[in-house]
Design goal:
- 8% of the residues lie in helices and 40% in strands.
- It has 524 residues and is mainly beta.
């Protein structure tokens, strides 16, 4: 699998026209931006982990039934420094670099311990974020790089710390109906008391005429104290309803002392994450308007979550759907040495990978003190999820498993934060590399699949039909790659209702596997 997942990609700086088979709906007008690792070696030096590869931005532009493609490497400071030196000189999460091998150990220690949290790379390879009308390549560090969504040029770098006190921030924000962006991050040390911070950037925050960034108008919604000062929870995303932010404080933790001394000890930052299987998971529910947390303490068994599916309110409950893992082994499987597996049979024989489960947690918002201890407080009739009142007044949440073996979830985002029926995702049954896509129906608890032999689809993206009323009236977009030299990479377009192929746009050049992205509708 390394042949398509961990080899260097290349730029396609000028738009190229794809060859369309079938039919691309004429109403589909806009650009799908995608982001992911695309450069895994520079000169004779190589990255250790797939999530370390330097960012390659892709765009697929749809119009009048046609598709054009272009791609450019993100011209981050990390990229420029590496290319200039013709070797990797900036450390990444799974690859620690020592630029000056002559520097003695005491000098290195002094330099890196002077800042408790190191100044991370700006190689933003995970997602595309919109703040106001500004678009940024993003990862989970304090830096983002602004891009031009049309040309894919890198137009500037921004530091969260210049606008809000954060060491780390997610690459998976939420957008409300008014176009405001909500996100959250962690302030660990050197930025006041350690805390998780939830913030909002207004829809009208951009000032393109004066070239002022949208983040200048950032507003802190609230902060949540860390359960353990030296062991903040890792989080990749969070949930949002109409009125609440839902943060899952999981026992997959970052060891701050190990992080601060990683360079000194000669280990990478990824080794500073640890999963405590004997700990608990906390669910924080925060009112978006007041910034105050619901007083009830919600908790559950240990789990690891990277991606949320959706969250909404129903009859006095918060319903939270997410992708849960039993442990943190997924990160380990993306080390390049672990990806050197050339056959499906070999991967199938690897029993260490445990597929994730789509789980539903239900958090009752109004807990009566006089309710019987041990009783199930969930009164919704369309779920088997439970929430048991404990002797101390806390609530233990037991999830309903909706579906197994699905990741990279997507929904019709018009139903984000609202009760919904369908979600889509990439199937990961026996390997972390998705080889199918699925549509799951929450009412019938059934699913549909798309698959093609030896093909690997990216995260499915839903685009609604003009004037759509039904939730699944639209199309699913996914970039598909294959190690088979006879199969060109293609943009797949599925009917979201039937999950049948409407058409595909085959690219005349090689396209690299990506992670996440953002669809920008064409201006009307």
């Amino acid at each position: 699998m390394q042949s398509i997942f961990a080899t260097n990609g290349s730029e396609t700086p000028e738009p190229v026209k794809a060859r369309v088979e079938g039919s691309i709906p004429s109403w589909l007008q806009g650009t799908l931006l995608r982001n992911g690792p695309g450069l895994f070696s520079v000169g004779s030096s190589q990255y250790n982990h797939w999530f370390d590869g330097m960012s390659l931005i892709h765009s697929f532009t749809f119009g009048n039934g046609e598709v054009t493609y272009r791609s450019k490497f993100l011209k981050s400071e990390t990229y420029k420094r590496n290319i200039k030196a013709n070797r990797i000189v900036v450390s990444e999460f799974g690859t620690m670099i020592y630029p000056d091998p002559c520097q003695n150990i005491f000098s290195r220690a002094f330099t890196h311990l002077s800042n408790i949290i190191p100044d991370f790379t700006d190689n933003n390879l995970i997602n595309i974020i919109r703040y106001g009308q500004d678009y940024y390549a993003s990862s989970e560090v304090n830096y983002m790089n602004q891009i031009d969504p049309v040309t894919l040029e890198t137009v500037g770098r921004i530091n969260y710390r210049n606008h809000i006190a954060l060491n780390l921030a997610t690459a998976h924000p939420h957008y409300d109906n008014e176009g405001n962006t909500y996100n959250m991050g962690t302030a660990i040390m050197g930025l006041g008391l350690p805390k998780y911070v939830i913030f909002k950037v207004p829809a009208d925050a951009s000032d393109k005429e004066r070239k002022k960034p949208a983040l200048r108008k950032v507003q802190q919604v609230c902060s949540i104290p860390l359960r353990s000062t030296l062991f903040p929870s890792y989080f990749h995303s969070f949930g949002m309803t109409d009125n609440y932010i839902v943060f899952v404080e999981q026992p997959f933790k970052l060891d701050v002392v190990k992080l601060a001394t990683a360079y000194f000890r000669g280990v990478n930052w990824g080794s500073c994450l640890r999963f405590d299987k004997d700990n608990i998971t906390l669910f924080h529910v925060v009112n978006k308007m007041t910034g105050k947390a619901v007083s009830t303490r919600f908790f559950g068994d240990a789990l690891v979550v990277f991606h949320h599916i959706n969250a909404y309110e129903a009859n006095g409950h918060v319903v939270l759907d997410l992708i849960a893992y039993e442990n943190s082994d997924l990160y380990e499987m993306f080390y390049i040495k672990n990806m050197r597996q050339e056959t499906d049979e070999f991967i199938r024989s690897n029993r260490s990978f445990k597929p994730p489960a789509c789980q539903r947690f239900v958090l009752p918002l109004h807990v009566l003190k006089e309710a019987p201890r041990g009783s199930n407080l969930v009164t919704l009739t369309d779920t088997t999820a439970q929430a048991a009142l404990q002797e101390d007044g806390s609530v233990f949440c037991r999830p309903e498993t909706l579906f197994e073996g699905l990741e990279l979830p997507g929904i019709n985002y018009n139903f984000n934060a609202k009760k919904y029926r369908y979600f889509y995702g990439s199937r990961v049954e026996w390997s972390p590399h998705p080889n199918k896509m699925a549509k799951f129906d929450l009412v019938t608890r059934t699913h549909l699949e798309w698959t093609q032999e030896n093909c690997f689809p990216s995260e499915p993206v839903f685009v609604a039909s003009p004037g759509a009323v039904e939730e699944d009236d639209g199309v699913i977009l996914s970039s598909v790659v294959s190690p088979d030299p006879n199969v060109s990479p293609f943009m797949l377009v599925l009917d979201a209702k039937t999950f049948k192929e409407l058409g595909r746009a085959s690219m005349p050049i090689r396209v690299h596997m990506d992670l996440h992205g953002h669809f920008i509708p064409a201006a009307v």
